[in-house]
Amino acid sequence: MKKKYLNIKSLLKSGVAILGMGLMLISGGCFNLDEKVYDEVTESTFTATQADVVALMASGYTPLRYIMDWQGLFDIQEEPGDVIVTPTRPNGWDDGGTYKRMHFHTWDNQQWQCRNTWLTAYEAINNINRVMKQIADGDLPVTEEQALKVNSELRALRALWYSILCDSHGNVPLVTKYSDELPVQKTRTEVYNFVITELTEALPNLPSNVDKTTYGRITQWTAYQLLARMYLNAEVYKGTAEWTKCLEACDKIIASNYFSLESDYRNPFKTKNESSKEIVFAVPYDYTYNSSGYNWNAHMKQLLPKHRYVFNLISQPWGGSSANPQFINSYDPDDKRFDATWLHGPEYNATDGSLVMTLVNKMPSIYYCEFEEGYRVCKYEIASGAGSRLSNDLPYFRYADVLMMKAECLLRTGKSDEAAQIVTQVRARAFADANKAKVTGAELEGNTTIKYGTLDKNGNVDKPGDQSVVKYGRFLDELGWEFAAEFRRRTDMIRFGVYQTKNWYNHTPQGNHTILFPIGLEELNTNTNLKQNPGY
Q1: CA-based Rg of the chain, rounded to a whole angstrom?
Q2: 58: number of CA atoms within 13 Å, CB side?
Q3: How far apart are CA 15 and CA 61, in angstroms?
Q4: Fewer Cβ close by (within 10 Å): the C or N end of the chain?
Q5: Which of 214, 219, 206, 192 is nearest to 151 (CA)?
Q6: Structure pTM?
Q7: Those residues with Cβ within 8 angstroms of residue 237's Cβ, 6 or more apart along the chain or in another chain
Q8: Taking 80 as the threshold, does the pLDDT of residue 41 lie above it?
């Protein structure tokens, strides 16, 4: 029988951690001259432990850290929306107009933010397919039981990546095998159906426990929440609403009793947030040990250079992104989430208490703003003494989202008063006065409180644009206040029909085709099976 060897380089590329290997043991001055293999691991000498099994999947998880990296998922979900804007500043930030194109929805097939999501997703999918092939070929020493669990988790993880592509580019190739064949493009509906099928089939074999062994991994509850997200947006993705299925998936998570709302809204976003009961699925980051090339540096783009004195930072931020004043003005003055999400007003030196600067809710134009113009994101804790990378674990899925998805499904199926009870529950921690936290079903059915229209240099609406009532617009506001700066605003705006119809800040709508991003020019040139998305 041919002896199979596992090449160490191959294992490392797959994410396998083999620790503590003693390559040479010399005892009593005697040498055994029989042949021994020191640069490879044979099936007979390596038995996969639980840690090794987890490490097998690492190469599919690690690219998720791109979300808060330079021009990552955060950018394509927030820059085109009505909350985050990156204007030209005294130190630059024009960058060839890239941020203006994101705000104006005039991107093309060479827009790097759009391409970065595509490339990162397929990097992860390729890694996943490679590990699954190695298991199928018997190149990795795992038992049948281990193989079933690993493959199920990898299928669910691959489905997560395809859920991102379904939302961003829609009509993409479904690559399920590790090969060099040019993949064939599928419709957005086919991609949607693939994600649903993969999650449904993988779910029974995913871990159901919630503890240190499953932290940062896809569990059954992660899969249910991803299913709920897909069902919530089904009408956009495939043209048919799936409110009942979304509701059922949410109820599964609620009934598990594993998760709950934190009493303090800030807790899920702290540097040490791994024990938060509100986080259903987290993407771990670590400033010291991360060597993947993907880092949390979104705060460098959002904070001003002078914030190094406010937070005692060892790196100087770059000072680009800030908040659209129209969104800021929609907050209730008593909403605690405002202070927990935005830096505003006087900012003081962490060492001597002196005034460093004063941030104002004013942004004259995307073509030029002063540093202090526009409030800045502080939702994710900036630890004193931090550098250009943060160690906060990213709450990819929160329990608050489960409750709000259930509320939206109830609202859209004629049960607005039941929806209001849930929204009130979520709002309760944000208001000292319980009466201020209460919201009615009729309010949730009403129009948005955001004053849409493009702004002049003084912050007044100069071009109102479409002023029609937004159905369930107040609920969209609730999503904005609860989930501001959580890389989802674009998706929510599309679902409520605002993204493609309303004016805000300096943006005017460009057409329904902007719901999807264009496929990159280089991708089109290297794969003749691809066709550009309509409108580009």
Answers
A1: 25
A2: 18
A3: 10
A4: N
A5: 206
A6: 0.91
A7: 166, 167, 170, 188, 189, 191, 192, 230
A8: no
